[in-house]
Amino acid sequence: MIREQKRAAVLKQKRELSGSTTPPRVIVLFALCASVDLESLANDLSSLLSKDSSTVLPGFGIPTVASSEYKIRISVLKAPHGDLLSCMEMVKVADLLVFVASAMSSCEETASQYIDSFGNQCLSVFRSLGLPSTVLFVRDLPTELKQRNEPKKSCSSSLASEFPEDCKCYPADTKDDLQKFLWLFKEQRLKVPHWRTQRSYLMAHKVHVSGAGDFRLCKVEVLEDPLLLNSSTNQDLMGSDETQDVKV
């Protein structure tokens, strides 16, 4: 009985994540070192996803892609290296936090050659906030297939203590690398920080309602005050601005 209930819950979650009305999954790319090129990685991911259709939400500039091949909507955000507050806000709404390391990095300012001082600071803050699902991308690996495994393994083992035990490591240089990741990500059961399920939040196109789940934002309406302070003049004394419907 319990097993059947768990199975039903997993199937329900899969349907909710792949349905036509589900909000985009938010992937946040975070560079562990300033030398890591997030721009090229974001472009590589977007080009794979946008073979069919690509949409940038008007007014917000958030790149959101709907892919019929992977049957998923994804928003890819790049955490700005050096801006702690912006990185924190992005991690708060991330469905998947992708830590990106370069096999060629050499950060002499810290004990790890792959993480600089800002990366260390952010990792400490992210842990205190509560991490969502995480993965590690390793870039700048050798092009020869036989030579790639050793530097990837070295980077992964060096950083293993920094991340949760279930944080998997993926090479992320080639189209094939990213395609394999996307197919796995499509089926991945994402972990949600406990605090997020207890608090409602809004991220431009996605609304989370505690106890109800995630919803796509279709429009925002400003309703007329049903209890006007001055009914004779049909105005609210708290403000004289005209009330209008605002659609997003």
Automatic annotation (TrEMBL):
Query: Which portions of this protein are annotated as coiled-coil regions?
Result: none
Q: What PROSITE patterns does the database record attribute to this sequence? A: G_BMS1 (PS51714)
User: Where is it found, in Gene Ontology cellular component terms?
Assistant: nucleus
Q: Which domain of life is it from?
A: Eukaryota
Where the record annotates domain Bms1-type G, the positions are 23-191
SMART domains xref list? AARP2CN
Xref: Pfam families: Tsr1_G-like
Cited InterPro entries: AARP2CN (IPR012948), Bms1/Tsr1 (IPR039761), G_Bms1/Tsr1_dom (IPR030387)
One GO term of the biological process aspect: ribosome biogenesis
Q: Which PANTHER family match?
A: PRE-RRNA-PROCESSING PROTEIN TSR1 HOMOLOG, RIBOSOME BIOGENESIS PROTEIN
Q: Output this protein's name.
A: Putative bms1/Tsr1-type G domain-containing protein
Organism of origin is Medicago truncatula (Barrel medic)
Its lineage opens with: Eukaryota, Viridiplantae, Streptophyta, Embryophyta, Tracheophyta
